User: What shape does this take?
Amino acid sequence: MLKAVLFDLDGVITDTAKFHFLAWRELGKELGVTVDEAFNEELKGVSRMDSLERILAFGGLADKYSLAEKEALCTKKNDHYLELIQEMTPADILPGILPLLEELRAAGLKTIITSASKNAPGILELLQVKDYFDGIVDPASVAAGKPAPDIFLAGAALADAEPAECIGVEDAASGVEAIKAANITAVAIGDAEVLAQADRVLPDTSALSLAVLRDTWEKAIA
Ligand code: G6P
Ligand code: MG
Assistant: This one.
């Protein structure tokens, strides 16, 4: 039986993905590294420090900064990101998400946030949707970030479910890879080519419903 839905946050619940992109692009400019939309795909779902490391490696700057300097760069990016998101309201919840959360609650399924973002609790507050979730996995509590399966395995455990009883919803290739590595069924939102590893790809969140999640899960575990 399908027992739990494990939700990524950025790009699934709300479109913070664009703010992460703007903040990394700005920091990239200061470092002399061009962060364009294509390269940004490789940052989606990836933790703050891992994203910085990827940007530095992309710009040939891998060994240029000390850990303290890299931490300061991460703080700078995050301060800019926090400025960008502070105007967010419940109107920024992506289409189809609230009705889905209502459906899941009515059907008694568990809902867990499995996001790499340390800002996730604050964003759920801004969107006023915190109460729809049974738990938030603290990304600092898992050993390895996406594409490793850890955060989704922790999400299943938090829901008191086996991986086979869960479905994960993601917008990032690294996230889909993590879900599949956890032996969990994956629904992806976005470009079918980028997200080809998922069990089903939907063009946007408005296509999400309990029926679609159940159908995907039943076909995947058959
Ligand atoms: C999500 C986003 C990434 C972001 C990461 C860390 O996975 O998709 O773009 O880098 O969270 O977010 P944070 O808010 O902790 O910097
Ligand atoms: Mg995401």
